[in-house]
Amino acid sequence: MRYSLVLVVTMAAFMSSPSFAAGSYDPPPNADDRLKKAIKHIDRERYDRAISELRKAAKLRPNNADIQNYLGFAYRKSGKLEESGRHYTKALDLDPDHKGALEYQGELFLMTGKPEKAQANLARLVTLCPGGCSERADLEAAIAAAQ
């Protein structure tokens, strides 16, 4: 009988899932956690790290305009302009009124020699922000500097 009890306890220990001490298990990061981490990388100009986090966040939330906008920003700052443009377009497909994507896409248009498209984005921001907003002011300044 004692042998059977030892055998049962031993087998149960091997077959059970691993246990964790209280507080030692952290759930995998969710899309919001990855976005926050990516923004910290962007603030430190570590764009490749930001892109890595943002791509993981995008897999969790493929229809999130903010994630797509930040991907566009990080790719643009990395010099990957074509990839940047795809993400700004996706952000604006998901949310046509996304002010950040309109501003940043406008800046991308200026970088790629399409000032008329940047002006169109500015016109959209004027409509969205008749009293002004930072995105409108930043794109106006970028257009003025490019002229």
Residue fraction in strands: under 5%
CATH class of the largest domain: Mainly Alpha
Q: End-to-end span in angstroms?
A: 91 Å
Give the CATH superfamily of the largest domain.
Tetratricopeptide repeat domain
Backbone CA Rg:
24 Å
- Detail the poorly predicted runs: 2-22
Q: What is the ordering of alpha helices and beta strands? A: HHHHHHHH
Number of beta-strand segments: 0
Morphology call: globular
Residue-averaged pLDDT, rounded? Answer: 87
CATH topology of the largest domain: Serine Threonine Protein Phosphatase 5, Tetratricopeptide repeat
What is the architecture of the largest domain at the second tier of CATH? Alpha Horseshoe
- Helical content (DSSP H or I, runs of 4+): over 70%
By DSSP (H or I, 4+ residues per run), the number of helices equals 8
**SS-based class:** mainly alpha
- List the domain count as a whole number: 2
Largest sheet: none
Oligomer: single chain
